[in-house]
């Protein structure tokens, strides 16, 4: 059995609904469908969720929201009309209008984006509509009670397929609560885990996770296979991929996650699994993806005898901890250590931190280098395969890029280089082309 989640751009109008139906009908095992609210039809268009937030904000300040409400209503009416659906959409919209004027909470209002989208889709597919508020159970602390939710969903499933609205659930007192933005992905993952799906298909408007940022590399290729660990590396270091909250229910349940493109349904997209079998690992690229971020600071601390002293690392680490600044990397040499951290976190405390290090460690010197970008080549197949780091350093050298820092963990899942901010995009491009060509 497959659980499918469709994002807003896959549901933006009747034409997109038709594509969704062809995808669902192409495979009998596609039985559970989670939907977002309709997204943009063209670049200047509005997402329904944004319009709903806007409606609520207007009313908060006592400003009428009729024009915005009409824009929302017309989007749903036109989908229902173009697909000749029998859902009483006008009644549903009237209910929403009524809730708006009776002080409904922001979460309740914005959740109606997915609710309306799901009732239309259930009608169109001939599936049951299963409301998310019936089974996604939040605790008062805002976390999801997964066991209770899973059980409730299993109990709610009928014999037909089901359509579920994404993005929200219910608090113990019955009030509606939404996840953070983009949260329909989480609904889909929870449903897949609850129903022990064979695969969780996440349908969007790109043919999988791209090997590099398309704003930097022209037309990067999608990644065919990626492990959850690699994905974590790529997203941590800056790739715009699914956020972790999305992934943990399916990852824990050992369910493969497949990112697919509604507008190119034949494309296999990206398959994300804990591990791939050996045969699959023999082919394909050594590097899975390249990602990075600008604006790191490196604090260099040098002190005679530092390498053999005991407890200095702890003292330095405690100072960063006291200021709530995470330490990202610590490349070190003999009697010198470098603390690498995002510059944004040091904005208000750099000098305090340096002063406290001076006092506590009494270094021979301490200085800061700013404007460092970090770029990682991520790939599970790099492990034990000689020559990859050599190729990276040679390629960067040939292209005149000065490497300011190198870091590779013993898990050999990635090789990280620090370069000047101004070399960032060039580094990503050069690495991409040297490994993908
Ligand atoms: N519609 C919600 C949002 O725009 C949730 C989602 O699409 O995943 O954030």
Task: Describe the overall structure.
With 437 residues, the protein is an alpha/beta fold. The protein has 2 domains: 2-205, 3-Layer(aba) Sandwich (Carbamate kinase); 289-435, VC0802-like, CATH 3.30.2130. The chain is built from 14 helices and 16 strands. It has an 8-stranded mixed beta sheet with strand order 3-4-2-1-7-9-10-8, with helices on both faces. A hairpin with a 5-residue loop joins strand 15 and strand 16 (414-420). The chain starts with a strand and ends with a helix. 40% of the residues are buried. The mean pLDDT is 94. The structure holds aspartic acid. Aspartic acid binds next to helix 7. Aspartic acid is lined by residues 8, 36-37, 47, 49, 113, 166-167, 181-185.
| Structural class by sheet pairing and helices | alpha/beta
Write down the secondary-structure element order.
EHEHHHHEHEEEHEEHHEEHEHEEHEHEEH
Q: Provide the β-strand percentage band.
A: 15-25%
Question: Mean pLDDT score, rounded?
Answer: 94
Segments where pLDDT lies below 50 for 5+ residues?
Answer: none
Q: How many DSSP-defined strands? A: 16
Assigned CATH class of the largest domain: Alpha Beta
List each distinct ligand once. Answer: aspartic acid
| Percent of residues in helices | 25-40%
What gap, in angstroms, lies between the N and C termini? 37 Å
Please state the CA-atom Rg, rounded to the nearest Å.
25 Å
Number of folding domains?
2
Count helical runs: 14
CATH fold name of the largest domain? Carbamate kinase
Widest β-sheet, arrangement of strands: 3-4-2-1-7-9-10-8
Instruction: Summarize the main sheet.
Output: 8 strands, mixed
CATH homologous superfamily title of the largest domain: Acetylglutamate kinase-like
Shape: globular
Task: Provide the CATH architecture of the largest domain.
Answer: 3-Layer(aba) Sandwich
């Amino acid at each position: 059995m497959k659980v499918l989640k469709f994002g807003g751009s896959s549901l933006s109008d009747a034409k997109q609904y038709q594509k969704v139906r062809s995808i669902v009908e192409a495979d009998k095992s596609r039985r559970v469908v989670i939907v977002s609210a309709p997204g943009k039809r063209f670049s200047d268009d509005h997402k329904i969720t944004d319009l709903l937030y806007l409606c609520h904000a207007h009313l908060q300040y006592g400003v009428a929201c009729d024009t915005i409400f009409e824009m929302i209503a017309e989007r749903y009416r036109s989908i229902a009309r173009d697909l000749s659906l029998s859902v009483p959409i006008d009644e549903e919209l009237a209910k929403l209008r009524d809730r708006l004027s009776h002080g409904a909470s922001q979460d309740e209002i914005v959740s109606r984006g997915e609710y309306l989208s799901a009732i239309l889709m259930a009608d169109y597919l001939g599936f049951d509509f299963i409301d998310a508020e019936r089974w996604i159970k939040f605790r008062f602390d805002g976390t999801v009670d997964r066991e209770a939710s899973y059980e409730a969903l299993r109990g709610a499933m009928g014999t037909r397929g089901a359509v579920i609205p994404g993005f929200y659930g219910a608090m113990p007192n019955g009030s509606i609560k939404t996840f953070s933005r983009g949260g329909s992905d989480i609904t889909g993952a929870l449903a897949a885990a609850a129903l022990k799906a064979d695969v969780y298909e996440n349908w969007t408007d790109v043919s999988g996770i791209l090997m590099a940022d398309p704003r930097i590399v022209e037309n990067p290729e999608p990644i065919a296979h990626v492990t959850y660990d690699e994905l974590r590396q790529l997203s941590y270091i800056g790739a715009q991929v699914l956020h972790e909250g999305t992934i943990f229910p399916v990852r824990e349940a050992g369910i493969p996650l497949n990112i697919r493109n509604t507008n190119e349904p034949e494309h296999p997209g990206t398959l994300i699994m804990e591990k791939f079998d050996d045969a699959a690992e023999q082919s394909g690229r050594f590097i899975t993806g390249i990602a990075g971020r600008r604006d790191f600071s490196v604090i260099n601390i040098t002190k005679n005898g530092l390498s053999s002293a005991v407890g200095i690392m702890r003292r330095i680490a405690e100072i960063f901890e006291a200021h709530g600044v995470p330490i990202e990397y610590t490349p070190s040499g003999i009697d010198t250590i470098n603390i690498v951290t995002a510059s944004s976190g040091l904005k208000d405390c750099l000098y305090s931190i340096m002063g406290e290090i001076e006092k506590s460690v009494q270094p021979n010197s301490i200085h800061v280098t700013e404007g460092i970008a970090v770029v990682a080549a991520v790939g599970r197949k790099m492990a034990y395969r000689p020559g990859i780091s050599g190729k990276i350093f040679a390629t960067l050298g040939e292209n005149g890029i000065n490497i300011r820092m190198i870091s590779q963990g013993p898990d050999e899942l990635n090789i990280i280089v620090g370069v000047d901010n101004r070399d960032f995009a060039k580094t990503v491009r050069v690495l991409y082309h040297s490994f993908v060509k």
